[in-house]
Amino acid sequence: MARRDSLLGQCLAEFFGTLVLVFFGVGIVNAAVLAGVAQGLWQVAAVWGAAVALAVYATGAVSGAHINPAITVALATWRRFPLPRVAPYILAQVAGAFCGSLILYGLFHGLLQHFEAAHNLVRGAPGSELSAMVFGEYFPNPAMLGTTAEAYRQVSLLTAMLAEGIGAAFLATFVFVLTEPRNAGAPRTAVPIFIGLTLALIISIIAPLTQAGINPARDFGPRVLSYLLGWGHIAIPGPRGGFFLVYILSPVMGAVLGSGLYCALVRRHLPEQATSAPAPPEDASPVESGTPTMSDTPKPEPSVILVPCIAKGRAGCEIVQRAVELVADATPEAVIRAPEECPNGRKSLIVAVDASSNCQASSELARCGIKPGAVVSAPTVLAKAGLLRPGVDVRSHIEELAEPLAAAISASLQKWLNTARARRRYSDDMGPVLARFDGLWSKVEALPSPDGAVSEEEKSRVELLARRARNLFVKMDEIVPPGEWSEPHDLFQDAMLCLAYATEGWAAGDADRWEQNMEKARVQIQPLLRRLQP
Fold first, then answer.
1. Phi/psi at 352 (nearest 5 deg)?
2. Which residues pair with 305 in a beta bridge?
3. Phi-psi region of 483 (alpha: psi -120 to 50; beta: other; left: phi over 0)
4. What CATH number belongs to 294-419?
5. Domain extents for the chain?
6. What is the dihedral sign for C-alpha 127, 212, 60, 107?
7. pLDDT tens digit sequence for 144-158
8. 212, 202 Cβ separation under 8 angstroms
9. At what angle do helices 157-179 and 250-265 cross, to 10 degrees?
10. Per residue in 62-99, pLDDT tens?
């Protein structure tokens, strides 16, 4: 996710995301109950899943798309989501849910009145939860099990609390699983879809028991609206009471416990960088003396190591630590490590953020044998922003000062990440081209050194290889346009020409020309493979 600019922007995104979620999710409940359009529970659950995916795609890059107070609290508990942002996020989510349900009432109020008349329902009277359920939620599900005393005996308060808690636990667990940077199996671009699928599966199981709230904002926002529209005590506290325990407390506790169990039982055993292959030492050549091949070129996802406050004990270290946490929360590729946890020669961008000067931080890292890709000096950044003034106690303004420092770190990171991703895309595009080059190279290199006379059959066969090399040289611009990668692009074309010259020398029986051009081809291809490495 990209760096978020302000708390207001994040809250607006949470408001909009939750509004989208409620409009589509509560909307299908309105359509199913009032018009009977849904054919079975799975259809309703699938719409809820799609609503989650759309909301996450729409707002994830701004706020992280929590759209659920239970998820926000779980992230604050286990993933260092800033505590001062928890209450504003939750208020925005509840407001978004209220407004989404208000829009639905404007659309469905005619059908709602007709439904109440057809079923002899009076708002606020016993049994009117059968219509109130299109906004808030009830246990058991009034549309499936009814509103009688017999129905109440089938799903007790404790059962309802367990259902909501367990459902939220599974949802939070898979949110953590799918968004864990070290989980190599997570489908990065499809994470919202799989989170939506998780919710759909949960709804399909527990909806008969509690209507599957799983989300305190989704329940409380529409419930407040139904209270204001005349359902009164049927809405709050509900015909059986306990709405706070079942639909607010239980999902929050379940999400915290579920995600905590995942962190304790699974996450702690994940590899340090699941998305990154071990990198060779910096002085190692990517091409051995034999065949140069792209299959040997590692293609890890971009990764960033943030090293906070190399020189300990400075007053600004708390600001630095907070800024680094904000960046790590907003950047899936980033992890926080102490200097001693940074392996020498690692092919990652190591960013040292210190409360001292760039030189001091670089010196401290050098003592550990680490060469940082960048060093950010907190005093320098904050001084340029005009935030460091004589006599100001920095410890009393940690959050205020951490924001601009985190923005400065993120800005530098974004440039590097964009370059790394562009390199990866170019490497992927080059894959088929270099595979063809590998095939040609292996055939040409397997030729014995010419010793003068060459038969016509051998000459014809090798001349065919030369034509293929020249053809790939010509086709290169069509297959992979050079763009900003003109230098490696030219190097590859030079290597292809050298390969063609080598085969032509072999066909002519010229051993020197053959050997010299093979060596030139090796020299030309090596910088390209280095350039494509992360």
1. -95, 125
2. 335, 350
3. left
4. 3.40.50
5. 7-269, 294-419, 447-532
6. negative
7. 999 899 999 999 999
8. yes
9. 40
10. 888 999 999 999 999 988 788 889 999 999 999 999 99
